[in-house]
Amino acid sequence: MRRVFFALLGLLAGYAAGAALGGVLVALFSGNAHDKDLEIVMTSAFVTGPVGALMGLLAGLFMQRGSKGDERKKQGEPR
User: Whole-model pTM?
Assistant: First the structure.
């Protein structure tokens, strides 16, 4: 259950970070003058947001939180 919680947390945080980064990058580097606001929103929502969500999901699923060997070292138990 803990793994699912961290996966969902990573998914949401990754989407937010990806969308924000995409918005900043498009605002800085786009040469579009007519509908730049729309380009920022669409790129953030449909490109960089989902990419960030995928990266956050993978980070949440596979992040190491300490192993049993580390706990044994703290308690002074032999392996």
Answer: 0.78
